[in-house]
Hints:
This protein is α/β, with parallel strands linked by helices.
Amino acid sequence: MNEKRKPLQGVRVIELANFIAAATAGRFMADLGADVIKIEAERGDPLRYTAPSEGRPLDMYENTTWELENGNKRCISLNLKSEKAREAFFKLLETADVLITNWRVQALQRAGLDYETLKTKYPKLVYALCTGYGEYGPDKDLPGFDFTAFFARGGYLETLRQADSRPMNVAPGLGDHNVGMNLAAGILAALYQAKVSGHGEKVETSLFETAVYNMGMMVQAAQYTDVGKKYPIDIREADNPCNAAFKTKDGRYIQICFPDYNVYYKTFVNVLGRSDLAENEKYYPIQNLQKNGLNREFHDIVCEAMVQHDAEYWVQKLVEADLPFAKAQSWEEILEDKQAWANECFYSMTYPNGNTRTLVRTPVKFQEMGTPEYKRGPLIGEQGAEILKEIGYTDAQIKEMQASKELYIWDKP
């Protein structure tokens, strides 16, 4: 690994958050060299226990999801209902540049951890808040996960499905990772301002706001009610019938993407073996296709051609023609994808039990810093004692806090 200075070396981040979205921002900053200290309760973050829902065995010592969201961090487990633990938390906050939290606004206010309270005590602090639905409005206090606030409320499930079918199956983390990286971008801008001016800032984003932004093109287009198709649609009737996934002879799918149909049309029909259509004014340009209502007809022509050959045949043909496409891959195939390995998307982690697992890295690379190291995510409160010592606590005080259950350090085999 390149030993040059990391961009966030010397920055301390306190992460008072659970699950994925806010943790994503903390993980990204940890990869860039920040000292990210995660605050947990005695039982720990609920994310530690989600393995059965993901098709993995529940094992605190081989927890790939925990690594993904919390690698390179340290952890202290405090009972913030107790006065001594709260005192330790605020002492720790005095040393921090950034606080990341996803607590609900009401809970933050009850605990005296809302921005208005903290900014007077810590004027240089960057205060980063991640919510489900945003800070304002009638639904600001609803619990939010990416399945609900992002995929459902944000328009994915109702629109991005085949007409007359159920919504697509979704997987955890997709929306959360979007939100976390948006939050990280805001944090870094505010951190720069704080370093230059000495003034902190509050940064906020949410699952819902991020989904609305992601869907921006189509949300805006929905205003033009007398133009185009209203979603959900039958993909055969899409405004651009080539922007679809087509089934091959071996049951795989090839996703085609022609943002400008007219640019790609002639090359594509030649690849399909339908050069007879190259000058056919029924289907080209796209304005003729749409005027004649032949979207479905042309889509079916493509389907009939694609199903004549296996996926790998089409991969070769489409690559040779320099047309934009991708074969729809399974997660198992992604694990073996040479492109992903070449771009350092993965890290091989060997666990104490001897198992080696492929873990996913954060997606932003820095040339001079080099590829960041990958330390496993901390056990509950694993670095609690060393963190308290850094802010002046003695061994005797730490033992006393453990005995009174104000501090918890994982000690199970």
